[in-house]
Amino acid sequence: MQMIYSAELKRLPLFTILILLCIQSMLLDVDITGFLFDIAVAILTAILLLIDFELEITNEKIIYRVKFFFAIIYCRSLTSSDIKIIKCKRTGWASRCISICPVQGMRLRIIRFKPAEVYENLVSFAEINNIAVEKTKDYQILER
């Protein structure tokens, strides 16, 4: 079993900010500090638009990658012995979240990954590798 999942990011708000900054700088006469601030915010917004998150699940490990354009800027590989518990939660009205809590380091939050079977595959990965899974009542309602 080897699947690669990617996050579905909400890019419309960032794109809207970028467009509004461009329109503002064209229509208004601003001083150099305001112009430099607009440029800094536009560059930060453009960088955020090019970030992608990827999750790969194999039989032995889970690999989490953060990509900027096509370059990998962060990669974390967790084997079954590195994971303490997997927590399944409900976020929002009808969306799921899985927190992978490692023995050391920061937890990984898996939210809005596509295709949606990523959550079932993570739970089955935990069952195969004897990792504790904690599901909230709200998450169990979403499973029905």
Shape: elongated
Q: Describe the largest sheet.
A: 5 strands, antiparallel
Poorly predicted tracts of residues: none
Helicity level, as a percent range? 25-40%
Radius of gyration: 19 Å
For the terminal residues, how far apart are their CA atoms?
24 Å
The number of helical elements comes to 4
Q: Mean of the pLDDT scores?
A: 88
Task: Spell out the helices and strands N to C.
Answer: EHHEEEEEEEHEH
Structural class based on helices, strands and sheet pairing:
alpha+beta
Number of strands: 9
Strand line-up in the sheet with most strands: 4-3-2-1-8
What does the model show?
The chain has 144 residues and is of the alpha+beta class. It has 4 helices and 9 strands. It has a 5-stranded antiparallel beta sheet. Helix 1 runs antiparallel to helix 2. The longest helix is centred in the N-terminal third of the chain and has 18 residues, at 32-49. It is elongated. The mean pLDDT is 88.
Gist?
With 144 residues, the chain is an alpha+beta fold. The chain has helices at residues 12-27, 32-49, 118-128, 137-143, and strands at 3-7, 51-57, 61-68, 71-79, 83-91, 95-102, 108-111, 113-114, 132-135.
Write the layout of secondary structure elements.
Blueprint: E1 3-7, H1 12-27, H2 32-49, E2 51-57, E3 61-68, E4 71-79, E5 83-91, E6 95-102, E7 108-111, E8 113-114, H3 118-128, E9 132-135, H4 137-143
Parallel strand pairs: 5-9
Antiparallel strand pairs: 1-2, 1-8, 2-3, 3-4, 5-6, 6-7
Helix pairs in contact: 1-2
